[in-house]
Amino acid sequence: MKQLICILAFALPAASANAQSINDNCSNAIEISFGTTAFSTINATDDGPELPGECDEGFGNGFGSDIWFTLTAEQSAGIIVSTCDSADFDTRLALYTECDGALLACNDDGGGCGGYTSEMAFAGVEGETYLLRVGGFDNERGTGTISVEYGEGPPDSPNINFQHDGLTRQYRIYTPADLPESAPVVLVLHGYGGGNNDMLNNYGWRGMADEGGFVAVFPNGTRDQWNDRFWDVGYAFHSQLPDIDDDGFLSSLAVHLQETLGLDPERTFVTGFSNGAEMCFQLACRESSTFKGFAPIIGMMLDPLFLSCDPEFGRPILTMNGTNDNVTYFDGDMNNSGGWGAYRPILEMNDLWIDELETPILDRVFLPNTNPNDGSTVRLDRYTGRGHDREFHYYQINGGGHDWPGVSGNMDIDATREVWNFFAAIEPEPPANPADLNDDGLVNSADLGLVLASWGRGNTGGDVNGDGNTNAQDIGMLLALWTE
What we know:
The chain has 3 domains: 14-150, Sandwich (Jelly Rolls), CATH 2.60.120.380; 160-424, Alpha/Beta hydrolase fold, catalytic domain (Rossmann fold); 431-484, Type 1 dockerin domain. The chain has helices at residues 196-202, 205-212, 246-261, 275-286, 303-308, 346-357, 415-424, 445-453, 472-480; strands at residues 30-31, 35-40, 64-72, 77-82, 91-96, 103-107, 119-124, 129-136, 143-150, 160-164, 167-174, 185-189, 215-219, 222-223, 229-230, 268-273, 293-297, 317-322, 361-366, 377-384, 391-398. The strands form 4 sheets. Strands 10-11-13-12-16-17-18-21-20-19 form a 10-stranded mixed β-sheet, sandwiched between helices. It has a 5-stranded mixed β-sheet with strand order 1-3-8-5-6, with no helix packed on it. Strands 2-9-4-7 form a 4-stranded antiparallel β-sheet, with no helix packed on it. The protein is elongated and about 90 Å long. The chain is α/β, with parallel strands linked by helices. The termini are far apart.
């Protein structure tokens, strides 16, 4: 239910244009009801307390130049307070029980909100009056409108701190009810300037996790010189920033979740959009021992990574690109006209992975154009090989732009569903055969030769049964596991 806003207003003479706002102090908070109203913090001073660490979304807790409102809930329901896309400065919101009271909610950058504007949700209780604090990050000031509406309550996935490489990193996690033991886990990476709240709420991952029985994890990148969140893949305009160990952070986070939540190391996957997709490619090159499948959506590989990519293990990859993308150019950008850095054409990048994964066999299909009004169609190229289960799937969005299919742009497919179906089909690797001493996939005379060459107590070169010696017991076990 929405109600008309009721806010106390005063007509001020022109001579007092630079005076403080009437509600500049918490003790002078004015009433605000449900609806939308204009506000200004241009003449505001600082009156609120410091914020606790839980309000730090990755770039500190700066909050000042604030004004105050009282807000009374007329029903027990979720309440959303928002300056999302409706203010001309970097806003911040906080909610308290009373002046100098307990903090109930806070937000810096709302998911999907441009210009670092804010959106905060909390569980309202009928008849309760709250203190709403509106200000700027790091004392920024400006004008805008603020809306107060009933809606979904606070997210059940708050940011969780994770220490890595001397930095406090953050992630959100969504765990379905009745999760099976040793469940899969999917890390979902946001694009440049985005955030994990956007990926959590706007891409269908919670519903897909419920359906598929997996844990969805939404990490946050760090912030750059323009206060934009990013993954450190080596963009040209980040050359003066200190290196951020995002490879280590994401790999360590995955292992931490495996150990603490009992998640399956053989079904640990990562996907991402745009900058998050480029981080996926980087992880496929550098962290293939941790992640068992990758799904970069609408991304590329900067040329230094392309030239140096040398994965320890070849893992299945699904990728998508639009032919009319005006951010990630389909034909590449070796001259760096886009400013991100030099990168090769998308099809040349695909060839790198087709060779790396040893998947030369192509099965091409044109998917049904179920939404002819979206201006694009989808071609799926499925590459496989012989003697292994690795696959490379490439979705070419003909006429597509810089969008996550199914959310915006192409609507013939749901990229979230395509990604999960791809991950769900990846079979865990069978345990290594202890008698395959030369790791060629066979147990034969070559392995028997290694046992005989390593014969002796304390010699482990041919130790098949793991007792620390190479002897007749190892020959017996090797013959029992003989494959050729």
